[in-house]
Specification:
The complex is a heterodimer of chains A (470) and B (515). With 470 residues, chain A is an alpha/beta fold. Chain A has twelve helices and 15 strands. Chain B is α/β, with parallel strands linked by helices and 515 residues long. The chains are: A alpha/beta (470), B alpha/beta (515). The interface between A and B is large, with 200 and 207 residues.
């Protein structure tokens, strides 16, 4: 039980060696009044067979619906080799590679990862991962304040077209240190941040501008113009990008004349399953000149006593275990195993495979949108190019339709009412390379039927959606 | 062990690829609508290798690591216990892996049931009133905890409270977290027996005290005996008590932080509840709170709903089984801003490290009530036994008058003086003996220290072998100290030049740098 190998004879010998009569005696420094009386709320133990049965039952309850939701987490094909290797005990059950000589596998892998993700984003250096895409935006904002010493305001401009959850996480994390996040309005016809939205900030002290590409709606922002506007005013640019898209889209390091200063994003599309929201990993890359302000672990290549190459964690003086209260961040454990999966994924896909994944995903979404907008009552919400995700407007509330689709085991997308009520009934949909033409046809046909059978809700929306939060 | 492995970029051949993994080409028309000025001009530097080459490369890399599955890993403060394979297997059932985080609750009742029950079990073993699961690592849980303390004081218009007290031996994440939360750190001393200096504490608390962050057992590997008095002093001054769950394994099933008077705690599920460390994560830093901090919990958390009645937190009067019985008409759902309007907010893009939470859930269900108690007992037995074996061989305990908790510190001050070797030399030489090194030079308070945590999942024979290796190394320190100073000798690399690594930064491979 409890994976404890001791025999009764072992225990007796150990107690004798220590010189106590019972295990209980080892707790004699703890005030008796504090000892646990009962743990009645913990059920009896289950063996592996029993827990297996329970978990399969629970999994069955969740089902395997056909999923057209994206919104920051994307269902891509994951080669079988990725998790077969990632879950090898040598990766799975190792600690952070502090003891470099006994961790060369993990350290070299981090170095390879840093090379890949830096190149993918067009930047010079990378860390070994952060918690997720949302927390990476928060960390990037804090880093921008440290880097942009000329700015005193700690004001960060964030487009309303950035993932709403990312905005919330940034506020919850960084406002404790006095950062202020100000929302840039977007054009409701185009679903993008217009250059005009920035004009009112001319001449003001702004620390950083965040740009998400593609944005939450899947729309492509004019990243060159936004980046150049910011740089002309001494404002740092934080790029928030989807790694799959970077096989096709201009990397942050090449945005505008100078390139973005910090790039972050959600690494999940690179070989990490959806798994109900995590574990995923955040990535962060930047310019070499800012590396000492970057949070998180970094692996570097160096030489050993014999002058042979090896890998070690470096620039640790930035980190909490050395710098304590003056560290760049409190982050310690990051998402190493997910970074491991992503490195294996990127190696299997290579530049061509990733490019094809991006292109096919984009094509599938195009087919989906074309089919959906042929239905009466459905139209594309925005004009202009998207990448592998898009918004459609509907002529009636979305929630009942999604419910009707879910009853047919189709997850039809994300209802935007709660986040962007000004768009009216709007649905964010995504199809990746994992969706076949038949899957897409099934969704379109089902939505067509639901549009027939689900009437306009007589009393408007369900009460829980009546008070949109913004 | 293997010696080394070429970088994957050096094995790359233009045009090669694991083509069976690629989707079928959709043709150039499929991306014709992407404007040229937003397109990428040059391909990224990703390796071009076949599937077998990639599999072989990463398998070989894995073989350069020590891990729990391959080696005894007594890393103090890290709780490197066995990570049961069942936890991985059943957390990775296809339905769980395919679940989209924004999918409807109707298609997530299985996952939500597990998370709800995990909240309930964590409440029970910690003695807290409510638990939220979304923080993604220990330090992230610390952040949530201190942010809740701040939010609590603010909600009472008690705005001057911005000081967080930490003992000088605390983990670095404690002061770093206080800073992240916009607080000021005040460090206080620890006395010669390893307990918090109560006079120093009394002098430190006051109208500015937001709270104190403590691990108990402390980072010195001993139980804070006067914890009730510490709680009284801090509470009387208007501050709150934060429990850093790094060392929860020591007292699991024996003592509960809630009963010691703590107001908020984080739990490292990747330590105490055996989810894997993964070479640096993912972890999970669930937080538990007393009643007064409940409104501030980070969202989302899981509630059970019956008609209009929502139970986020099963009342104790319902008894232990109530939490696990889902009656007719009951369903689980996410609780968000509307349910907790005073929440410190959202700390993750979706739902924290859900897959890690599932692993912890499976572990806890397998252990059950009795197993939970055994964890603390056998972790403590192993630590005290190993400490005894080492002191018998002449090693010096840092706190010889004290019981070990689940871990203990030995100081090699004497060996350093007599043989001119360091704790680091011992640590590196242990690698040659097939043991991962204990934590070195933490806490900094104790000179030339090794912090050793065997965990409950190691048997007596492993501990004996480790003690024997330490004895052998000590002998070597007397007779052939250079062997230690130049260790390790059998690993894939010798000791690495960290200064060079930091000065001549080489953080990415560059094709031009290669011949």
């Amino acid at each position: 039980m409890a994976f404890i190998p001791h025999t009764a004879a072992d225990v007796a010998a150990m107690l004798a060696a220590i010189g106590v009569a019972s295990i209980e005696e080892l707790f004699d420094e703890i005030p008796a009044a504090l000892r646990v009386k009962s743990l009645a709320g913990i059920p009896e133990s289950m063996n592996e067979m029993e827990i297996g049965r329970l978990m399969k039952e629970r999994a069955r309850a969740d089902g395997r619906p056909l999923c057209f939701i994206g919104a920051g987490a994307y269902e891509h094909h994951i080669p079988a080799a990725v998790w077969a290797i990632t879950t090898r005990g040598e990766f799975y059950s190792a600690y952070t590679p502090y003891q470099a000589e006994a961790s060369q596998g993990t350290l070299q892998l981090i170095y390879e990862y840093q090379t890949m993700i830096a190149s993918l984003t067009g930047m010079e250096v990378a860390n070994a991962s952060l918690y997720d895409g949302a927390s990476a935006v928060a960390e990037a904002s804090l880093m921008a304040v440290r880097v942009n010493r000329r700015s005193k305001s700690q004001r960060i401009l964030v487009p309303a077209t950035m993932h709403p959850h990312y905005r919330k996480v940034a506020v919850a994390t960084a406002s404790n240190q006095g950062l202020r996040f100000e929302e840039l309005p977007y054009c409701t016809d185009e679903g993008c941040t217009p250059a005009g939205a920035l004009a009112r900030y001319d001449g003001e002290d702004i620390t950083a501008l965040v740009i998400q590409q593609p944005n939450f709606f899947g729309r492509l922002e004019d990243v060159d113009a936004l980046t150049d506007w910011a740089h002309a005013r001494g404002i740092l640019v934080i790029a928030v990008v989807n790694p799959t898209s970077l096989a096709l889209l201009k990397p942050p390091g090449e945005w505008g004349n100078k390139g973005a200063d910090i790039a972050v994003g959600e690494g999940q599309p690179l070989g990490v399953p959806l798994s109900g929201g995590g574990p995923y990993f955040g990535f962060m890359t930047t310019r070499m000149e800012f590396v000492r302000q970057m949070p998180g672990r970094i692996a570097g290549r160096t030489l050993d006593l014999n002058g042979r190459e090896g890998f070690t964690l470096t620039l640790q003086a930035r980190e909490q275990h050395i710098r304590r209260a003056r560290a760049t961040s409190n982050i310690c454990t990051n998402q190493g195993l997910l970074m491991t999966a992503a490195t294996i994924y990127m190696s299997l896909m290579g530049p061509q495979g990733l490019e094809r994944t991006a292109a096919v995903s984009h094509a599938r979404t195009g087919e989906l949108i074309a089919g959906l907008t042929r239905l009466k009552g459905v139209r594309a919400a925005f004009k202009g190019p998207c990448f592998h995700e898009a918004v459609v407007s509907l002529d009636r509330p979305v929630a009942p339709l999604l419910q009707a689709l879910a009853n047919r085991d189709i997850l039809g997308g994300l209802d935007l009412w709660e986040y962007y009520p000004e768009l009216g009934p709007a649905l964010l949909v995504c199809a990746t390379e994992t969706k076949t033409a038949a899957d897409i046809d099934r969704y379109i046909a089902a939505l067509g039927e639901c549009l027939h059978s689900v009437r306009h809700a007589p009393h408007g929306r369900p009460a829980r959606l009546a008070q949109p939060r913004r | 062990m293997r010696t080394r492995e070429q970088l994957i970029f050096e094995q790359s051949h233009p045009g090669r690829g694991a083509t069976d993994q690629w989707p079928h080409d959709s043709g150039p028309d499929s991306i014709a609508d992407l404007p040229a000025k937003l397109r990428r001009a040059r391909r990224p530097l990703l390796p071009e290798v076949g599937e077998l080459e990639a599999v072989r490369h990463f398998t070989r890399l894995s073989q350069l690591n020590f891990s729990i599955d391959t080696h005894f890993y007594p890393l103090g403060s890290c709780t490197m216990k066995y990570n049961p394979r069942a936890c991985n297997e059943y957390a990775m059932l296809p339905e769980f892996l395919a679940r989209h985080p924004l999918g409807p609750e109707s298609h997530g009742q299985g996952l939500l049931a597990c998370l709800y029950e995990l909240q309930e079990m964590l409440k029970e073993v910690t003695g807290m009133q409510a638990v939220a699961l979304s923080p993604m690592a220990g330090a992230h849980g610390e952040f949530a905890g201190v942010a809740m303390i701040r939010a609590y004081h603010r909600s009472r218009a008690d705005l001057a409270r911005n000081e967080i007290i930490v003992p000088e031996a605390a983990h670095g994440t404690n002061p770093a977290t206080a800073t992240m939360c916009g607080c000021v750190v005040r460090e206080i001393a620890v006395n010669a027996e390893g307990d918090v200096d109560l006079e120093a504490l009394k002098a430190a608390v006051g109208a500015n005290t937001a709270g104190i962050m403590l691990t108990n057992p402390s980072t010195l590997g001993v139980f804070e005996r006067r914890i009730e008095e510490v709680a009284r002093i801090v509470h009387a001054a208007g501050g709150l008590l934060y429990y850093d769950g790094a060392n929860l394994n020591a007292i699991l099933g024996k003592v509960r932080p809630g009963d010691m008077g703590f107001d908020v705690i984080h739990m490292n599920l990747h330590k105490t509840f055996s989810t894997p460390h993964g070479g640096g994560g993912p972890g999970a830093g669930a937080v538990g709170v007393s009643a007064r901090l409940q409104p501030f919990l980070p969202i989302p958390l899981v509630g059970k709903e019956e008609g209009a009645k929502v139970t986020a937190f099963a009342p104790e009067s319902q008894g232990p089984q109530a939490a696990f019985d889902k009656g007719e008409g009951e369903r689980y759902r996410w609780l968000a801003e509307k349910d907790l309007p005073q929440s410190i907010g959202r700390l993750s893009g979706f739902m924290g490290n859900a897959g890690v939470l599932l692993r912890a859930y499976i572990y806890m269900r397998m252990l059950g009530r009795e197993g939970m108690r055994q964890v603390g007992e056998y972790a403590t037995l192993n630590a005290n036994y190993l400490l005894r074996r080492l002191t018998e061989q002449g090693f010096d305990a840092a706190y010889p008058s004290r019981r070990a908790s689940h871990e203990f510190i030995i100081t090699l001050k004497r060996q350093a003086r007599e043989f001119n070797v360091t704790a680091m030399d011992f640590a590196k030489r242990l690698l040659d003996h097939g043991f991962h090194a204990p934590t070195t030079y933490f806490p900094l308070l104790v000179p030339e220290c090794l912090l050793i945590e065997p965990t409950e999942t190691e048997g007596k024979d492993v501990l004996d072998a480790f003690a024997a290796a330490m004895a052998q190394i000590q002998e070597e320190a007397e007779q052939e100290p250079e062997r230690l100073r130049s260790a390790p000798h059998t690993m894939p690399v010798r000791r690495l030049d960290d200064v060079r690594a930091a000065k001549q930064l080489d953080l990415t491979w560059k094709p031009t740098a290669q011949s």
